[in-house]
Amino acid sequence: MIESFGVADSPKDISYYASMLLMSFAISQCLTVMYWGRLSDRIGRRPVLAIGLVGTLVVSLLFGVCKTFTAALLVRVAAGVLAGNSAVMQSAMAEIADDTNRSRIMTLLPFTWNVGSMFGSVIGSVFSNPATHFPGWFGNSKLFVYFPYLLPCLIGSAVSAFGLVAGLLTFKETLTRPTQSVQTESAASAEEVLLLAQTAAAPVRQNSMKRLLTPLVVRFMATNIMMYLSFTICDILYQLFAITDPRNGGLGLGPLSLGLLFAAEGIVAIYIQLVAYPRLERKYGVLYCYRRGLSLAIPYLVAMPFLSLIAAHLQSQVGVSPSSILIEKIVMWVLLMSIMTMRATSSVLAFTSINLMVANMAPTRADLGFMNGMLQLVISAVRIFATLVSGSLWSRSIKHSLRFSLNSHLVWILGALFLAILLKLSYRIPDSVNKFAADQPKPIEDSEDLDS
After folding, report:
1. Which of 111-120, 344-353, 354-363 has the lowest mean pLDDT?
2. CA angle 159-162-163, nearest 5°?
3. Does 208-437 match 2-170 at the fold level?
4. Which domain of life is it from (predicted)?
């Protein structure tokens, strides 16, 4: 698509303009996501989710008819501004759940994100430029000839429209007012019954930002920045490492091998999210799962670059019959799959636990949108920085022929050290994050601390 805009002087410049589109979305989302979360705390989850779906529907259509890079950039900025649904949906799911099923329900959101990303990539690659790819169906369509990228955007808009209609018809507001059971015993006075009824009808009151940003929350969000930075940079490096020539410290995987690897990793992640994680969380608690996610990531980061030594050895076997190096290939793939399993497991355990702990820290249900919006703000900001530095870190680490630990292993070792520090800091997190605070009994406090 960027090539059709005519802004890139050479194919090497396409990635630069593609990164600009990605960054514009992340920056605008970073600046607005907390406002959507706080708005949902005031007017409810349902209307904010509906606004987000309408916005997604519209910007998808607009992106499909962009004919210039400037227009595409503006549409991506608008898409980021309207991309507050992730934090709001996390809040809604936390409110739907209870202590018996919260871990299982909260794993559904990253699961649907992974499935959507997978199918979205397929739709975008298969249905772009349909007049050329499917001339029998779309060859005579002037619309798709003039707008070659409209069809996948139409499909995306149709999915958003379906979600909007389904949500309006079936989704009920989850931000409820607190209720109390009023037992009108014969000894109870009419005044007491009236007072309890008025309390039950009182609107949900939000805590002020100052009250929500407790020392625990601030420390927790600071450690989240380190964790997301380590994982995000290593996720980007993982893709670069997989396609880099083994002589330069990579694996040199082709498109087919890379696709099979990502598909296998996706299957493992789905199993961990839907089956293993809920069982672990019910038995040991969310904080335990978070620590196990960090501890599993450390050995995978240290071991990953050593695979390039095997790949380089296999590459050097020029003229050798395939059967003679079959065992070495099997060993490399067994090791790669083992490390990939550790990577998928650690990511699911760590990220799902973060989502649960942030929801558990919200003192009331009326503050869930703010807490999840703050988490999404951290994610967006880290994604911006990680996108900027990851490629530079990798190119510098493989460019210089330095000794071990300063060569292509450097970025992986730094990531492991970061996570080791976070693992130690995680033991300062209190066990109270294992419980959903909004449903716990609250002491009576002065109303002046609350911000309606």
Report:
1. 111-120
2. 85
3. yes
4. Eukaryota
pLDDT above 90 (res 290):
yes
Q: Note whether 207 and 450 are within 8 A (CB).
A: yes
DSSP SS3 for 207: strand
The single-letter code of the amino acid at 441 is: P
- Type of residue numbered 76: R
Helix or strand (DSSP H, E) at 171: none
CATH architecture of 208-437: Up-down Bundle (1.20)
Give the pLDDT band (50/70/90) at residue 321.
low
Measure the CA–CA gap between 322 and 401, rounded to whole angstroms. 31
CATH superfamily of the domain spanning 2-170: MFS general substrate transporter like domains (1.20.1250.20)
Could you state, in order of their start, the residue ranges of all structural domains in the chain? 2-170, 208-437
Q: Quickly count helices (H) and strands (E) in the chain.
A: 21, 2
Nearest to 294 by CA among 224, 241, 218, 359: 224
| pTM, 2 dp | 0.70
449 alpha carbon, distance to own chain's centre: 33
Residues in Cβ contact with 138 at an 8 Å cutoff, skipping those fewer than 6 apart:
130, 131, 144, 151
| CB 91, CB 372: distance < 8 Å | yes
Once rounded to an integer, what is the mean pLDDT over residues 372-400?
74
* Upper half-sphere CA count for residue 35 (Cβ side, 13 Å): 10
* Cβ–Cβ under 8 Å, residues 72 and 1: yes
